[in-house]
Amino acid sequence: MVYLTRKAEFSASHFYHNPDFTPEENQRIFGKCNNPNGHGHNYTLEVTVKGEVDPRSGFVVDLKQLKEVMNHEVLDAMDHRFLNKEVPEFFKCIPTTENLAIAVWQRLESKLQKARLHRVRVYETPDLFVDFYGENDPLEATS
Amino acid sequence: MKAHLTRRYRFSASHRLHSTEMSADENRVTYGKCNNPHGHGHNYALEVTVSGQVDQSTGMVCNLVDLDGFVEREVLSRYHLENLNTLQEFAQQVPTTENLSVEIFEILQRGFYHAHLERVRLEETMMNSFEYAGTAEPKH
């Protein structure tokens, strides 16, 4: 098994707000991130896929295809967007880095052809990132 | 759904690698420049990884305010701008970055309850780093 990671960058704005919370609760839990005008980040996305090396091509996955899927499914939808207002997953779900990693996984999983998705890592800043290994993480049974 | 969240912190500290169980010559051979009796320092980078179900109402594994507060109070304020050899936990063991990783993991494991501690990763310089995940294998 070989693991291959492709990086991409996108910039987007968001804010954190749960309509079920009172304004005071929203402020206490989310702090500055609760500002309804939003704020932005330069996100870095790392997508890791795994698979056996194809003996004919020497590839785990056609990088061109992976790049196209990432561009089409993630960057076209999220780059230079206000996540709360323009990305359907976040109309009702708070666009935290955790939920962003899950949304990217769900967007990519069914679109990849040969390789299997291993991990989606989203950096919100160089000092904060979230890893998502899928809903049925095979490693969880052993850890 | 379960996610892993990693936060990165920085601190600077000095240390000297010297084992009381070795002769002076053995210490010099084993630790080289790090055995200099006057010590030397590093800018450490610490990564703390926690995991848990993403809370549907907040979208979070844990609130960063809680994680940052704990790490600041229990780890950074303990080690930043200190000489590690003078600290109680290194009275009997050499303050290698391996041992420091284990100490920091144990501080978090003892006191941080807002999410499951997965691992700590400690960079001593940009060229070397150490990971400790307790009894588990670090996940990549």
Topology, pairings included?
The complex is a heterodimer of chains A (143) and B (140).
Chain A: E1 2-14, H1 23-30, E2 39-51, H2 63-78, E3 81-82, H3 83-86, H4 97-109, E4 116-125, E5 128-132
Chain B: E1 2-15, H1 24-31, E2 40-53, H2 64-79, E3 82-83, H3 97-111, E4 116-125, E5 128-132
Parallel strand pairs in B: 1-3
Antiparallel strand pairs in B: 1-2, 2-4, 4-5
Notes on the structure:
The complex is a heterodimer of chains A (143) and B (140). Chain A has helices spanning 23-30, 63-78, 83-86, 97-109; strands at 2-14, 39-51, 81-82, 116-125, 128-132. Chain A is an alpha+beta fold and 143 residues long. Chain A is 29% helix and 30% strand. Chain A has 4 helices and 5 strands, in the order βαβαβααββ. Chain A has a 5-stranded mixed β-sheet. Chain A has a single domain, classed as Tetrahydropterin Synthase, Chain A, CATH 3.30.479. A 5-stranded mixed β-sheet of chain B has the order 3-1-2-4-5. The radius of gyration of chain B is 17 Å and the shape is elongated. Chain B has helices spanning 24-31, 64-79, 97-111; strands spanning 2-15, 40-53, 82-83, 116-125, 128-132. Chain A binds chain B through residues 16, 18, 20-21, 29-31, 93-99, 101-102, 119, 126-133, 135, 137, 139-140, 143, and chain B through 1-9, 49, 54, 57-61, 63-65, 136-137, 139-140.
**H/E element order of chain A:** EHEHEHHEE
CATH topology tier name of chain B: Tetrahydropterin Synthase, Chain A
What is the annotated CATH architecture of chain A?
2-Layer Sandwich
Q: What's the CATH superfamily of chain B, by name?
A: 6-pyruvoyl tetrahydropterin synthase/QueD
Element order, helices and strands of chain B? EHEHEHEE
Q: Estimate the mean pLDDT confidence of chain A.
A: 93
Count of individual domains of chain B: 1
- The average pLDDT value of chain B, as a whole number, equals 96
Total number of helical segments of chain A? 4
Concise summary:
With 143 residues, chain A is α+β, with helices and mostly antiparallel strands. Helix content of chain A is 29%, strand content 30%.
